[in-house]
Amino acid sequence: MLPFTSDYLSYLLTHPSDSEYAQAELPGGEKIELIGAGALVITPKHFTNHCKAIVLSAGIHGNETAPIEWLNQLLDDLLKGTLRTHHPLLLLFGHPNAMIAAKRELEFNLNRLFCGAWHQGNSLEHQRAAQLAGWMSDFYERFALERLHYDLHTAIRGSVHEKFAVAPYIPQRPHNLSQLAFLQHCDVNCVLFYHQSTQTFSYHSASVHDAQSFTVELGQVKPFGHNDLSRLRALDSAIRRLVTHVRVDWGTVRYQQCHWYQVTEEIIRQDENLEFNFADDLANFTLFEEGELLATQGGGLIRVKDGPKAVVFPNAKVAIGQRAAILVKAMSRSQCQHLVNS
C-alpha cells in the first residue's frame, strides 16, 4: 500500500529520505511501485514489444519547479485512473532536498555528476546521482523496449526561445526524426545539438543506455506555486498522447518552424575572475557579432570567433572548472535537413 493517495509531491517534500518500498494497483490496472524517495515505476497490466520504456525526470535542480509541478499532476491523474499508460514509466523527482531548500543545488551541480562522475565525491548530490542512475539502469534492464528519456528543466534567465531542447552528442547515432517531430508537438521548436560528451543526466541515458533523450528547458525558474502550467499545455498533451497510445505517428519535422543551433564551444570558468561583458539578465540566445567582447578571465579577453553566435546558459558563478556558458551558431534550413538525413 502506498503511503499517499494523491499529491505525491507534498508527501515527498515532507519525507525526502523515505526509501521504503511500497506498491499498489492503480484504478486502470497498472502496478505502481515506490522504489525510493522521488522514484516511481508504473507498469501496465499488458504491454507489447511495440511499447517503450519511458523515463520522465524533473527537479534535477531543486528550484526548477514548473516541470516538478507538472510531473506531480501527471502522476495524480495516473493515481486517480483518469490517465492510463500503455508503456512502462519511470518518474523521477530529482533532488528533493534542494526542492525543500528552494535552491538549484546544495553543494554540487547534480546535472554534472552522471556518467560515473558520482564516484568523485560523497556529497548528497554525488550520492543522489548514483541513486538516480541506478534506478534508471534497473528500469531499462527490466523492460527490454525502445528507451526514451525526457529530463525537464527551467532556465535561470529568460530566453529568446522560451522552450528549447538540448540533444546529447552521440556521434555514431543518427538523429531520430520522429523524436524531433515529437518535440515540435511539445511546442519545442528550438533544439541545440551538442558538440561533445558531457556528464548530464540526458547524456548519461543516451550514452550508457542508448536512449533517445533530451534535456528540455520549459521557461524560467519560479518558486513553487508561481508557475503558469498552461504554458506547458502542448507538452502535457503530447506526453499524454505518447503514454496512452502504443504507437503514435508524430509526422515529419516542420522545418519552417525550426530554430536549430549547433553548439560550437564552451566558456569554462578557470578562475575567480571570470566576468561577462553583458547584463546579468541577458536572455538566452542573445546574438553577438564577430569580434564582440563576451567576457574577461585571468587577464584575457574572450571574443566571438566565426560569428555571429548566440550565448546560452551564461552563469559566471559556477564552480571553477565547470561550464559558464555555451556558444551556438544558428543552422540554416538546408543544414537542418542534412543533419537529420546524415
Automatic annotation (TrEMBL):
Origin: domain of life: Bacteria
Q: Which residues form the AstE/AspA barrel-sandwich hybrid domain?
A: 257-329
Q: Annotated pathway, please?
A: Amino-acid degradation; L-arginine degradation via AST pathway; L-glutamate and succinate from L-arginine: step 5/5
What is the UniProt remark on how the cofactor binds and its stoichiometry? Binds 1 zinc ion per subunit.
Fetch the InterPro entries from UniProt. AspA/AstE_fam, AstE_AspA_cat, Aste_AspA_hybrid_dom, SuccinylGlu_desuccinylase
Q: Which GO terms describe its biological process?
A: L-arginine catabolic process to L-glutamate; L-arginine catabolic process to succinate
Sorted alphabetically, the keyword list is:
Arginine metabolism, Hydrolase, Metal-binding, Zinc
What residues does the Succinylglutamate desuccinylase/Aspartoacylase catalytic domain cover?
Answer: 52-242
Report which reactions are catalysed by this protein: N-succinyl-L-glutamate + H2O = L-glutamate + succinate
List residues binding Zn(2+): H61, E64, H153
Renumbered to this chain, the signal peptide range is: none
Q: What is its EC number?
A: 3.5.1.96
Q: Which residues form the active site?
A: E217
Q: What class of enzyme is it?
A: hydrolase
Similarity field: Belongs to the AspA/AstE family. Succinylglutamate desuccinylase subfamily.
Task of the protein: Transforms N(2)-succinylglutamate into succinate and glutamate.
List the protein's name: Succinylglutamate desuccinylase
Q: Origin organism of this chain?
A: Celerinatantimonas diazotrophica
Gene for this chain: astE
